[in-house]
Write a structure and sequence with these properties.
Layout lengths: L18 E10 L3 H5 L5 E2 L8 E8 L1 H11 L6 H14 L6 E11 L4 E7 L2 H20 L5 H7 L13 E7 L7 E10 L3 E3 L9
Antiparallel strand pairs: 1-3, 1-7, 1-8, 2-6, 4-5, 4-7, 5-6
């Protein structure tokens, strides 16, 4: 495990996957054809069943706790950080199911992934902001100073920008350039929020 690249997960190994708070996609448009039309914009269109939107990325929890221990110079041990982090995750509120819409594709990260940019109700944006505030409170409890700097520099968290862009990743872009590409407006239905890979969290005593 010590040689595993931090912040990445290989499903062929026994290492733990990253933990995120997400909402599953229940449907796009009026039927399967509405989603399949995106195949003209991307390669290897992802299966509809696995589509989701990430609200908060925590990363591999062991890596996150190690980042905390290093940042606090050992004032918070990885074991203490683990117990408090798992307890914090279990207490997070649940966002009820909701609907949004999309009318363009955007390029994400280094350009290898295209996603639907989602227009959301204000309540969903407020919920995502509340998750970030809750993360700040957790880090304060874990004795992390300069919390914003920690969030942007922690390899486990993997934040590249303080701004959240609501999106659903759907495949690899076919076209060069950064986009965006306009598409026919489609409705997107989401289920209630959940902790992805919750079953990989250690059990609290």
């Amino acid at each position: 495990m010590a040689n595993r690249p931090r912040g990445r997960w290989d499903s062929t190994t026994q290492t733990a996957p990253p933990i995120t708070v997400e909402v599953p996609v229940l449907g796009i448009g009026s039927g399967p054809s509405a989603y399949e039309e995106l195949g003209s914009y991307v390669w290897a269109l992802r299966r509809p069943r696995g589509l989701h939107m990430t609200l908060l990325h925590l990363g591999v929890v062991e890596d996150f706790c190690t980042d905390v221990a290093v940042w606090t110079k050992g004032n918070t041990s990885p074991e203490s950080a683990m117990g408090r982090t798992v307890s914090w995750l279990e207490r997070l509120p649940v966002l009820e199911a909701f609907s949004g819409s999309a009318e363009r594709l955007i390029v994400l990260g280094a350009g290898g992934v295209a996603g639907l940019e989602i227009d959301l109700p204000a309540s969903v944006h407020e919920f995502q902001v509340s998750l970030v505030h809750a993360l700040h409170e957790l880090l304060d409890e874990l004795l992390v100073d300069n919390i914003d700097d920690f969030i942007l520099s922690s390899p486990a968290l993997g934040f590249r920008s303080p701004r959240w862009v609501p999106h659903v990743a759907v495949g690899r872009p076919k076209y060069h350039g950064r986009g965006p590409w306009e598409i026919a407006r489609v409705g997107v239905d989401f289920g209630e929020s959940r902790i992805r890979n919750r079953q990989f969290l250690p059990q609290l005593p």
